[in-house]
## 1
Amino acid sequence: MWARNLLFAGIVIAGVGVLRTSLFPLDTKARQVTFDPGPTANDEFQAVVQRVDAAFRTGWADEGLTPAPLAPDLIVARRLSLALTGSVPSLEEIRQFEAQPPEHRVDGWATHLLHDRRFADYFADRLSRAYLGTEDGPLIVYRKRRFLSWLSSEIAKNTPYGQIVREMIAGRGLNTDTPAVNFIAATYDDVKKAPDPEKLAVRVSRAFLGLRIDCAQCHDHFLEPEWKQTHFQALAAYFGQTRQVVTHVSDAGGEYHYEDRVQGGTHTIEPSVPFLPELLPSGGTRREQLAGWLTDERNIHFARATVNRVWAMMFNRPLRKRVEAQTLSEPAPPALDILAADFAAHNHDLHRLILLIASTEVFRLDSTGPEVVTADHEQSWAAFPLTRLRPEQVIGTVLQAATVRTINQNSHVIVRLSRYFGEKNFVTRYGDAGDDEFDHSDETIPQRLLMMNGDLVDKQARDELLNASAQIAILAPDDRTAVEAAYLAVLTRRPTDPERDHFTAKLAGTTGKERQGRLADLFWVLFNSTELSWNH
Amino acid sequence: MESLMRTQNAEGGTRNEESGLVTSRLPRRGFLAAAGLAWLTPLGTRLARAAEKDHGPAKSVIVLWMGGGPSQLETFDPKPGTDIAAGTRAIDTAARGVQLAAGLEQLADQMGHVGLVRSLVSLEGDHERGTYLLKTGYRPDPTVVHPSIGAIVCHDFPDAGVDIPRHVSILPGQWPARGGMLGAEYDAFKVHDPAKKVPDVTPTVPADRFDTRLKDLDVVEGAFAKGRGQAGATGHRDTMDRARRLMSSEQLRAFDVSRESASIRKEYGETPFGRGCLAARRLLEVGARCVEVTLDGWDSHANNHQIHSRLVGVLDPAFAALLRDLKTRDMLRHTVVLCVGEFGRTPIVNALGGRDHWPHTFSAAIAGGRIRGGVVVGESDPAGGKQPKEPVPVANLHATIFKALGIDWEKTLKTPIRRTIRRSEGTPIKELLS
């Protein structure tokens, strides 16, 4: 009997020990983050960053704007985690981050995240919205999960982005063996029993050129007269020889015909590109020609569109006014061309592009300052723009903040499954942003109710032993540390003095269940703050 | 019985519910002029205005959403005695010459109020795409997310006095009605079986503790707002206040069908869908504009007849009780009720005794508002062919509903990229409108 009691006591002590090391600086090697600045330490890399910074500074000087001061490192780390993994850093990660020398810890954090599988999975999921849409799509002929898994692997390996796109556009084979072909299969038309060339033309122009010429599908563009229907249909013609038999995508011969929805009848059209025809490769299938033209390093529109989209994923706001515009000549800050040229010159290196953006001054500016930050500051990137987080970022933050340890690929399968289903349920109830993920709309009342009273959020705040609130209540040595740990876990910052005083007073003299309840209240408050739901 | 079949129409004419036609019509002003009492014109005008008000457009919509795609042959378009019926019987209804599939006996009694379209045509044979088309009137389009009927109705009929959501989806399926380009604020508020509590409107802690939490939240909000001129523009405070108003609103009781008598509840049927229909009526009474109630499970690729028999048994009492109840409360003339799914099912029964997806010809039932009862539009092929007589594009159904609601269906909405789209691209089905 004594042996069982001893075993039980041992397990309890070990468990408490693990929790304590999670709450406070730890030394377990396996869980330690490597803070290697990677390419950001190179002079050549820094020279590009400086050119971008100088271009913005010139703009601010012209407009008479004083930029906001630099944001605290922890806030920048939060932005990076949200953009690259869809949630805030865990308390475990924050403790390690703070233990690093300040000079290069943000660079090291960005580099670390790029090597974390959470980044590849999250980026693949977001990019795929532009490639595939958010529909579940036709069964059997389309395998979305396979595509996502493939894309995530390619992003993790840092396969050149141009190559990834070429495989998507020109790939052939089974949708299980060659998952890239699901880009084509996603448009499978059940009536025509073939991929839809018009839908593919829409996807290619929007996802890879940032161009909406969809209106020219049926008629010459009313709003942008430069786009003719023939431009659109000639682009669609590159997919006119694409065939799909059940799960197999291939190319055949034949002409492309399109239906004239205005005048009636059908027309035949040869494939051609709307600009830079000199970049077209001479050989290959029609799809290979289109893919080669699009991803040619001299096709600056491809590079610009990618930079603009990735910038939007980092800031929740694109560098241009829109991620997808009806013209290629929408104005942009000079930074767009500096970054686009660098992206093309470095073989469409996605990791480098993300690090460059993360290293710019504008990414590290505060969203507030001693002087009130105005809309002009945000407009000109003289302050970090305040934007609403996406639904999966909101719940990702809540789920991560509710546990002191990092939820990642090393977590127990039950923890990962719980996170997966928690996120899925929440996003279903909260409402997914859909394909147009940079369309910022106001929060709705049902969304607020879900945050205030919904089970999903409440469960994370509740004073249960597995939750951070209860663990902090039990293990924090004093009230002040407990409040600070809660703020760090949820908002990735320390409380201001008035906040610390207010909440420390609430914990004063409490013990046991009462103390856990007060901590649960604090977590609920932080979960429901503007600060949690916004990028800042 | 005959007296039940004839109702006085607002302008003094008599509507024959069997044919759905107004059999005589003598406008009051014409009558006054004919009687040499033209000096009474001001009185006539007032009477006419009162009549218009009385018979004005409908104000709200209930969508009975048949998720999965019901078989037209086992619901609103039976073909008794044909090969494609596969044994399904038909029953006569209160509308002469109009038959429904066996199992819809209660609805059959209400057919004087119900119009049928038996020739809806679509090109969308996929559940998600078909649902999008039927709920919005548009085929899925990567350039824009179209708003659903309920979103447009709420957008066009603003109402500041209602605390609860005006667009509600009860028992939402996988794709509940959305606001689309009008914004997430027009998305349907999703609730489950009304026997359960309304989700997310009750604090998880006692009231005093909840109030303390809200006061504590002010401390955190104050810290975040510092130095952020635009922080107020997040709208957080406003949304929070409105959410709290909803949480304490008496209108929330509309979701609670247990407040209805046992006999009414029994009429609707003690099923989640029956309770959903009852809640829909209660919600409309407190100001909701559009309530969608879903009856899922019609996707009968195998055992079609058993599945339909069970679901028709749920639909029939609920749909019929809803119409009776709305009529009794004088709400039917202000409420359009639509019953439809994303497509129909194949005329041929497959080897598993199922029917597969069939967007080529399917049916919808529509009632209330200015909809003429007992009318049948279009005719499907009794041999099971793809071409119906008088094909009706789905968009026409939407244009009809908007017209019944007094909404100009041709009026455009602007998409985020300045493109204009009509509320509906269809044309109202004139045979259905009085």
Note: The longest strand of chain A covers residues 242-245.
## 2
Amino acid sequence: MATPSIIGQKNKKGQVYTDPWYMLHEAPRTPSFFTGSEVIKEAIRRASVDVMIAYPITPQSEAAALIGELFAEGYVGDYFRGESEFAVMSECAGAAFGGARVFTTTAGPGTMRAMENFPMWAGSRLPIQMIVTCRGINSPLSIQPDTLEMAYLLQTGMLVWHAETAQDFYDWILKGYMVAEEPDVHLPLALCCDGFFVTHTKDMVELTPADMCLPPYDPYRSPVPCMDMECPPVRMMRDPFVMKSNYISYATHASWQQEVWAAVERSRKHTIAWLDGLIDAENVESDVVIVASGTAVSQGREAVAMLADEGIDVGLVKVKTIRPWPGEEIREATKHAKHIVIPEFNIIGWLAREVKATIPNNERVHAGPHVAGGMTMPPEIIVGEIKSLLGMKVETLATRGS
Amino acid sequence: MATSSYKVLPGPEHFLPPAAAAMGIRLPNPGEAHIHGEIVPEEKAMEVAAKQFLMAKVPTIFPGPLVLWAWNEKAAQKAKAVRHLFETIKECVTPSQRPMLIPMPDYRPKYPKINPEIEINPNHPNLTIWHNKIDTCMFVGVHCHQANLSLKIIRGGTSCYTIAMCAQAGHEDAMLSFRDATAEKILKLAEWIKKLKGTVGPSQ
């Protein structure tokens, strides 16, 4: 957060640098009917971003192009297309090393191609924000929604949040900078959503005033030295301790890694304040609780309503952040549950694995239903799985239309 | 949030000690400090830090780049305050005690060998602690990431009591940490040392 003196001043577009808490919690909001991609644009309009680097890959291309329009209008300091996703993420690092507030977007194979950069960002304590509009990553090619790529991001040292709706997206882009730039955190944030379901559908979103914006990033609060990128201290890169083969080098590197994960832990306090908790829990006194993230929460909510119509009581836990992992919150929210159902838009069930590693008596976890490769998840299949768990007869959906 | 049973104590703790944050230790809020991971009022931490300096055989200040270089007016003021604190410690300890002021001028690893009599480095701070037999130290003006590296390595391999005078949010990996450090706060610590002079001394 910038020093208070900047609050109330205007930027070159006439936007007023506003106290972020006031802007995001108290300022008047205007309902607007936007796609997720347009919402990304509107959040970045208010985010005082210095540098955005783009590369086309579905389904984030539209958002990247829209931010190009913001650059043309003067709301973003600099904007260019990288040579590849790997190049984009490397260039983001350069801009962040130099003290810029940096934004980028990627998806699916782009995330995978750029992967080497993400632990580097975290290890270098660069608070870059990257939108990940999740899609299929494997062959045969799929551009459709699939959250498998998030599993690969979980061990990079980045903060990983999973937005359910366009409204989450709007608020969390702005709040994400507030958490990620705290000096005791100062880590990159992967703000993920389920591609197309969020990016390409229209929804009502409550926007903050367009004449208010976040205060600029203050690189002098960084936990590592800000670099003069016109004359970078090359020896820090060319002759790092990791290149030495001795106990001290190894121990320092280990300690460095621990510090990155300590910073993830420290983000907990700030994230709880800004997101009003790492999870949302409803009706968790029930015997059956659905635990989900992203748009699987929306489908879970529909399933809860359908089951309620039949007199079956089911709770719902919306997991907002995957890193930091809300283990304590999930243990508490599921302590009464006899069955924990975890629907996911990926084939491996990474969320279920995380929950199983967290709670006691994890045989209660039912990993599924799973869909992948762009399939939708009708709430009826969540309803069906829950009824099966309860020993009730279920009609299969697989023969619909036959 | 669950409270942690872990205590941030002088080591040597472990071959690779955990980061205190990973053990549930949380940073203080403005106006607070922590001692061994427990949140306390800042005034209490002032008293305990002053006593630690007065009881140490080799009380040492490690100033880092943020106060060693006069890159803005506040840094210059802090540097003067650090010098005043060091002079105060020298005035207030007994002849058997050996106060030191050893800079951490930059963060590059020093190869082939650091000179531990004249500097400390965040990648191998234990070498300077061991060589000078430092039993209490205070970090000031060190970037937070490098300070945490140092504090954890010191806790892992030495018995030194660590204090952090942090300009940002504080350090869980120190045994005692202040936050939001200013020149005034550093001078206040010097006042506490003067006030407690003669009330405690080094163990024999």
Note: Chain A is about 35% helix and 20% strand.
